[in-house]
Design brief:
single chain; 320 residues; mainly alpha; 14 helices; globular
């Protein structure tokens, strides 16, 4: 009886009725909460729906060493082609502004490499190639037209996923990557090599950062072109990763009570004793170019202090 009920549930999850559609929506919504969550939910769906793992591309390679080697070589080579030829043709910067903080930032490497292997390599390939190809393939069929449509659609969705945090350049690159990886997956239906290639692709991008990239940033008219401040930004990114308990907790530890709301802009200070103390603590942790005024600006931006004018509708006391 229990087995029969589980069979019916599995069939509904695999289908495109109300429960099947709901499961798709829940899985796709997972990334809005936490990027790997959609992949975790997709794997749970595969288990509960009794979908063979091979239908998500999890096919054991005949030769693991060969698969790993091909994946690494392909991923690194593909990244070099994208960085030196394709992205410049699209007018994209050599380094995505989102990742300027990684230039020369060796302290951030362990964390970012973990993200590239787990979130990018394993999770994104499982979701955008394995799961989406399985669902769309069941819905649209396996004809050449349907397969081409699936490759294009999943690539566009993959690109749009990168738009918010990586901007247009990141979305363009992700869309192209999606087209290439999607085409390979459509032909092979094997995902392990693509996971390795995806991770190698991203790691190769970071491994290429060096003094030349600092020089390139100095020529970027869109940022403050001051070598000391660029190097300070890199150093501060490193220092932020090493703050015990996290940088947010450190900054919020200096949140105090305000005696009264400022009435005019003249009442808003440039710095406070609390920001001076925070600046000294930041300096102790290795931060540079973070004096009392900069520290106070950080406290303002993060909401640690509320110095909206008394009559301002955005003031917390006024809103309440």
């Amino acid at each position: 009886m229990v087995d029969a009920e589980q069979d019916r549930l599995a069939a509904k999850l695999r289908g495109f009725g109300p429960l099947g559609i709901l499961s798709i929506l829940v899985i796709l919504a997972g990334n809005f909460v936490l990027p790997p969550l959609s992949t975790i939910l997709a794997l749970v769906w595969a288990h509960e729906s009794r979908t063979p793992w091979s239908e998500l591309g999890f096919v054991r390679p005949r030769n693991w060493m060969l698969t790993i080697t091909i994946g690494i070589v392909f991923g690194v080579t593909f990244k070099l082609v994208m960085k030196t030829i394709v992205m410049p043709l699209l007018g994209a910067p050599a380094i995505n502004p989102t990742y300027h903080f990684l230039v020369g930032n060796t302290a951030a490497l362990p964390g970012i490499i973990f993200v590239m292997i787990v979130v990018a390599g394993l999770a994104e390939e499982t979701l955008f190639r394995g799961y989406m190809f399985e669902r769309l393939g069941k819905l649209l069929g396996s004809s050449a037209v349907a397969t081409t449509f699936i490759v294009v659609l999943t690539s566009v969705i993959f690109g749009s996923e990168h738009l918010k945090d990586q901007g247009l350049a990141g979305a363009e690159q992700a869309t192209i990557v999606g087209l290439v990886y999607g085409t390979i997956y459509a032909k092979t239906r094997q995902i392990w090599m693509l996971m390795i290639a995806h991770a190698a692709f991203d790691i190769a991008a970071v491994a290429g950062f060096g003094p030349g990239d600092v020089a390139r940033l100095l020529a970027d008219s869109g940022i403050v072109r001051n070598r000391a401040k660029i190097e300070a930004s890199i150093q501060n990114a490193r220092a932020a990763l090493l703050v015990p308990g996290g940088l947010a907790a450190l900054v919020w530890s200096y949140a105090g009570t305000q005696d009264k709301a400022p009435v005019t802009l003249a009442d808003v200070p440039a710095w406070t004793p609390a920001s001076k103390a925070l600046a000294a603590e930041l300096k102790r942790h290795g931060f540079t170019f973070t004096g009392p005024v900069t520290a106070y600006a950080a406290m303002q931006a993060s909401g640690v202090v509320d110095d909206h004018l008394q009559a301002c509708s955005f003031r917390r006391s006024a809103a309440s």
